[in-house]
Amino acid sequence: MNRTRIIALAALGTYLAVGLAAGPAIEKGTAMKDAARPLSWEARFRELLPALGHRNWVVVADSAFPLQVSPGMEVITSGEDLLPVLDKVLAAIDNSKHVRPRIYLDKELAYVSDDLSSGAEAFRSQLDSRLAGRGAQPVLHEELIGRLDQTAKVFKVLMIKTNLAIPYTSVFLELDCGYWPTASEAKMRDKMKADKR
């Protein structure tokens, strides 16, 4: 065997020995492995929520919602059904002090019946009961997409995609200030108009 082959085989042996020795330590959960593991959708949402505020949006989307390229858009896939994801998102927002949601639904959803998409009517009933008293507003789908597109040019839009395969079921949450009611904003603006300074 010539000298070059011996050196190459020795180097390969050293490389394999070091790799095998390091392998079990990495597998047992070193910081390197943990850093490479992606966050769950819930962990990512909890991480972002304190930074989100007035004019940010969170969308809990059906599975066919399009991936958008606007600079402020972030998409997370949940791997879960829409209603349990919505429950978790609303609970987290409700427990925060700094934001509250304005809720929008696709206007088209009211016209999607079971003969058009199986399970649509049961879904709509469950969604309505979850959103009762929250003032959810129906808006045409294209208008909501346009609002998201414009918002994502300047502000963060977080989209959490779900596994639901019924059209027009996405829930759009426009975040507003949680500690400054709309009525207080209106009164302040009236004072500003009355002040001739």
Structural features, described:
This protein has 2 domains: 33 residues; 150 residues, RbsD-like domain (RbsD-like fold). The protein is 45% helix and 17% strand. The protein contains 7 helices and 6 strands, in the order H-H-H-E-E-H-E-H-E-H-E-E-H. It has a 6-stranded mixed beta sheet. Strand 3, helix 5 and strand 4 form a beta-alpha-beta unit. The chain starts with a helix and ends with a helix.
CATH topology of the largest domain: RbsD-like fold
Biggest β-sheet, characterized?
Answer: 6 strands, mixed
Approximate shape: globular
Top CATH class of the largest domain:
Alpha Beta
CATH-level-2 architecture of the largest domain: 3-Layer(aba) Sandwich
Mean pLDDT: 86
Task: List the helices and strands in order.
Answer: HHHEEHEHEHEEH
Number of helical segments with 4 or more residues: 7
Low-confidence stretches: 14-33
Number of strands: 6
> Approximately what portion of the residues adopt beta-strand conformation?
15-25%
Helix-residue proportion: 40-55%
Structural key phrases:
single chain, 197 residues, RbsD-like fold, 6 strands, 17% strand
Summarize the structure.
The protein is α/β, with parallel strands linked by helices and 197 residues long.
Topology:
Elements lengths: L2 H25 L3 H6 L4 H8 L8 E5 L11 E5 L4 H14 L3 E8 L13 H12 L5 E3 L1 H11 L5 E5 L9 E7 L4 H13 L3
Parallel strand pairs: 1-5, 2-5, 3-4
Antiparallel strand pairs: 1-6, 3-6
